[in-house]
Amino acid sequence: MIVGGGLLLGSAAMGIHTRMFVAHAQSAPGIVVRMEEVSGLDDDGTVYEPVVNFTTATGQETTLTGYGSNPPSYEAGEAVQVLYDPRDPGAARINDFWSLWGASAGLAALGILFVGMASFLLRALRSRSA
To answer: What pTM was estimated for this model as a whole?
Structure first.
């Protein structure tokens, strides 16, 4: 229960942080210039990270590396929308669900799983002792 609760709190904190980022971010068009192949923890763990170039409203050219996936989420040459912090353009993300909310959603799913499993086990233990 404690682990699940911690995961849910972490998910909420990440969600609040993302919501604040989105509220203050500026949008810019970007282009995927290449997909970088990154080896994972095991033999089948290769992921492909999009490398995106975009220009801020002040004319600063910036590059961001998005979150990896397998199969690749994007193709080189593909247009994407980027959200960036005007005070720190390096803190940018591709404007899609997984780039913005994926980590928070993953933690929430794990938290729900842990809380659900703990609840099931507690009920099973209580019914045995009764």
So the answer is: 0.80
